[in-house]
Amino acid sequence: MNILLIGAPGSGKGTLSQKLSKKYNLKHLSTGDLFRAEIAEGTERGKILQDAMQKGLLAPSDILLEVMQKQLSQAEYQDNVLLDGFGKTLDEAKELDKFYNIDKVIFLDVDYSQLLERILKRRICGECGFVTTVDESNDICEKCGSKLISRIDDNEETFKKRYEVFLKQTMPIVNYFDQKNMLVRIDANGSIENNFYKICNEIGNKSKEIER
Ligand SMILES: [Zn+2]
After folding, report:
1. Domain ranges of the chain
2. Which of 20, 50, 76, 127 has the smallest C-beta neighbourhood within 10 Å, fewest atoms?
3. H helices within the chain, ranges in order?
4. How many whole angstroms from 145 Cα to the centroid of ligand 1?
5. Residue 150 C-alpha to ligand 1 middle, in angstroms?
6. How far is the centre of ligand 1, averaged over its atoms, from the C-alpha of 146 (Å)?
7. How far apart are the C-alpha atoms of 38 and 132, rounded to whole Å?
8. Ligand 1 mean position to 134 CA, how many Å?
9. CA of 11 to the centre of ligand 1 (A)
10. CATH number listed for the domain at residues 2-26+80-111+156-204
């Protein structure tokens, strides 16, 4: 089974991807992984990607699709793959859907207020890079005991912009897969553990009719 996981910033996509890959032995693939591999190969496409990343620009669509197609056509990526937020635009998602067999698209549906609350509580360890959410009383890293700090871009203003980009770019992708009856919408306002449980229920029971 091949799964595409979609969610807004703060939806828990990264953490849930890791937990799902581990539980179901899925090959977890993100756009960043692909780009790093291509750059490491030193190809012409890799150079263009590196340039775009350094300038903070989105990768050109044609390059993104070529790199995706190259990777996903390999034998080891034919099954048991978890794609982490692939395709930034509707056109890219449609192309992906043409050349690759996706069985389910899981959309982590979280309210704006809940996303914002999570983002504002997010802290990163200045020493080891561990990322967590905190209440005010706790500012010590559970991994190494160093001080936790806020990331500079985890503020309401920046988040609002990122959320608007998400609505504009990603929601058309969600609607596209919904119309094709490939979408599983998960109410992901609750805890990570609860959301993980809900997704496992969907994946573990393939024959179950998709809840919409
Ligand atoms: Zn730490």
Report:
1. 2-26+80-111+156-204
2. 76
3. 13-24, 31-41, 44-54, 61-72, 90-99, 112-121, 156-169, 171-179, 192-204
4. 6
5. 13
6. 5
7. 30
8. 14
9. 23
10. 3.40.50.300
